[in-house]
User: Fold these one by one.
Assistant:
Number 1:
Amino acid sequence: MKDNQSDSQLSADTDKPPFFKSWKGMYWLVLGNLAFLIILFYTITRIYS
Amino acid sequence: MRLLDWIVLLGTLGFIVSYGVWKTRGSKDIEGYLKGDNSMKWWTIGLSIMATQASAITFLSTPGQAYEDGMRFVQFYFGLPIAMVIISVTVIPIFYRLKVYTAYEYLESRFDLKTRSLAALLFLVQRGLAAGITIYAPAIILSTILGWNLTATNLLIGVLVIIYTVSGGTKAVSVTQKQQMAVMMGGMLIAGFMVVKYLPENVSFGDAVAVAGKMGKMNVVDFSWDWETSWYDRYNFWSGITGGLFLSLSYFGTDQSQVARYLGGRSVAESRLGLLFNGLLKIPMQFIILFIGVMVFVFYQFNQPPLFFNEAAKNKVYATPYASELEALESQHTELFAQKQEAVQGLVSALQTEDETAIAAAQAEVQGITEASKVVREDAKALIAKATPDAETRDTDYVFISFVMKYLPAGLVGLLLAVIFSAAMSSTSSELNALASTTVIDIYKRSVKQDKDSFHYLRASKLFTAAWGTLAIIFATYASMLDNLIQAVNIIGSIFYGTILGIFLVAFYVKYIKGHAVFMAAILAEAVVLYCHFYTDIAFLWFNVIGCVAVILFGLIIQLGLNQRKKVMQAA
């Protein structure tokens, strides 16, 4: 393991995401995108089956 | 291969390798070499993660898989975005807090040295084998299609990767992967555009998708579940969301070839964003690649496909006493194609008039001829196997490259070959870098030479990178053709990943279980997974779940037993 710790890492845990106020927003974006894709793919499957 | 193709291929590869070496020259210590001085921004991490996972097999096998089996393989990736979120929430902060070089270092602080070493060794075995396949898979296909020498092709891919990975370490891997991703996605999108452009004039894009749907290729999601059969079905929603989640958790959370990508981030935020970027884009990327395969399938409804896509293997039969039988099958194939082409045109007309009765009739006719064609293809495969027993009779890996070589214009063939080489190089470089860092940090520095200076470990890292690269080339040279290549890599991964993930999940969430118990549980769990692989028909994605759950259950039971024994001994 490393012996020293850089400043950027010291503040790492407090870093904020660039697009939302908190990381929860980012996580919901990814999970919402997954739900959207599954619904879209299911719709495609139904339409073209 | 025409001159322009050679210029595009060698120019692209030469630029990427030279740029990688130049941009990352002069690593002076192990920190810079194995962690890229923690300087990576999120988009570099995200692209690097995607490029590491997207090997040449992705671009060769996936369109062929869609050609044969439709779009349903995309469900394999449904668990991935959930895994990205879980890793971002739990794993990244822990790895950053402990400032580890490899994922396995954490296991020593949580358990003990033997558990760390066991996890590192399981990784080295499975990733070492996979690195060989990563080189071999494109090499065998390219050498067959282009008539190149297999060993020379293995050497070309392997040596190019070794040059920049040894030279620049982690930073070189990530820097080159940006260019490689641009080549890969650019090349595939152009190929997708070309295949749609090559469809007959009276067949619109919408018609092509509708034809694919009527021929059972737009089966993207399957929610159905049957307790009798679904366990053996490799790709459905349930295996994708559960088995895929476990596989992704293990691959991205514990496989050093991926962990190294985000450990090189500038901060926790950059690493998280890189992973979430992958969580957003991976499924659409796979969907596009599969969809290109489906469009190639539609293209071959209007243009006669080869009887067997690995034409080099097929042509060998003509030098045997079975030549006349093959000729007869070729004639049947051509005759059936003429009938099918007419029937598919009828289906297109019916779809354009939206006459449901006509559509159903045309669909039934097409299906009937397709079934007859399948029988002829199966007969051809059986004949090839009989005439040339060493021949591989699965040809799905050759579908896309065969289309590229036969139909794309000069320049684009070179670009698509650059896509395949770039993909092979991007995943191999990550693998070599990870194999070297695990060997140096978890084995060499921890258990062999503990008190050397940073320069010594830097030199050792470079040597181990070159050594693993050489081993991968040797393995690739002597590997024999394995089932479907992308599945071979995933099966090898799944055999080991469940156990490794189980160890890490216990480490993160089950504080009750200690080092001795998890070590014994991991060995038992691996034995259970190997039993499932060799003696049952359970689909390989479930190995991830079985291995992981087995580690946790065995761990709990063994820990309980150890605690009981301790109590009895204390009482005595």
Number 2:
Amino acid sequence: MTRDELKGNVLSILENDFEFEHPGLDDNLRDDHGFDSIDAIELLGKIEIMLGFSLSREEKEKAMGIRTVNDILDYIEKIQSSHHR
Amino acid sequence: MKRRVVITECSAITPIGYRKEEIVESLRLGRSGVKPLRDDGLLTNHLHSRVFGTVDYPIAYEFKRQYRKTMGPVAFYACQVAKDVLERSGLPQEFISSGRLGVAFGSTHGSPTVQRQIYKTFFNELESKFSSIGAVDYLRSMVHTTAVNITRMFGITGRVIASSTACTTSSQSIGFGYEMIKYGMQDAMICGGADEYDTTTVAVFDNLLACSVDYNDTPQCTPRPFDTRRDGLVVGEGGGAVLLEDYESAKRRGADILAEVIGFSCNNNGGDLILPNLDGITAALRLALDDAGITPKEVDVISAHATATKMGDVIEAQAIAAVYGDSPMVIGLKSYTGHTMGTCGVIELTLILYMMEQGFIAPTLNLDNVDPRCSMLRHVRELSSGNIGIASIQNFAFGGVNTCLIIRNGREAAA
């Protein structure tokens, strides 16, 4: 998936499943949208389904540093490239 | 330290209505909330009993997603009635989060709807490489989900009691809340219970031949507490909450006093987990009177547990007769709602509070011919007006747990 495709999919998940209103790419997920650690785990499940493969425990732990939508996109791009190697 | 404990707010979502006006109208008109059992796509077709005490009206929940995400259907009921009592009370947030307000709330077994989804996922996707069990599924389904969703939503930091004793769940919650305040450990408690639509509960009682099966085509004709043609209980759903407060604090802040909790008992039969036990129930009724410090003659109305099972009603009638003789009026309120399981104690208490406030006594529905084995009691068979000064609410549960709550009319408590 290209970054634009990823962006569309992730924003759609955040709006539909997490009820974000007008998410901006650099919004702070927690401060601006009330996103918490439980949401992060739920989001990882959605990302697995979107990518079509399971994430390892190490890969999931790396997601805990995510703060913005752009961070999510960077994270998924890294995961994609490591799985395509 | 022993303090007086009063009920200052109540709210209930029941098969006969949600708002006080709807519930009172149902009681006055003799309107039953028992309906045909909804199809669950799993067990319904295997059950003999096809009736259910149903909440079939829409409820406008306005919970934000951050709260909804940890709630199964049972917590929606619980948080809605807790929200009602807290909002109406006008208690300031400073007090709510002070550690002096606690929560005693429970359900029969958390959220069976969410548990069922978990198992569906498990059995359907054994071959899947994705983990489909949600991060919040445990929080939605766990046995104390009602109590802690309430604390989370309203920022409550006091004690948490999450009783889960089937049919005595909410009466225990109220009793334990009363004791928390009476002995000075908390100044106020939100107490109650909730149970959601669930056919596994129907299946359990159906298997034990304890469910009503003869009135599947005329649901409003069952359950029939104390009637000769009763054939078992009808499972139901709902939620209810009461706000208990230390009397002096409630009086100081000018709160309306609906009733005073003057007595509570809880005991166990010490043996069989299913069969009703005359000695255990009789002891529970006497212990509550002792706690209240009143004589049996002072009780005007008894809200009997009266599930309409063949033996349960007879044993309860014998216990009431042994303790009270035929002096108090006896009502079986499950004839309106069905047996709302963990919620029944708080719902029956709320119905009695409405009757106390409005000065009427609702009859037991479907009591056409009193079973001769239950006929020694003073059954209420017609709607009547009258003041209820003191009432007793009795509930008994699988596991041999018995409870009895005794309340005094708020007008008299405030005097």
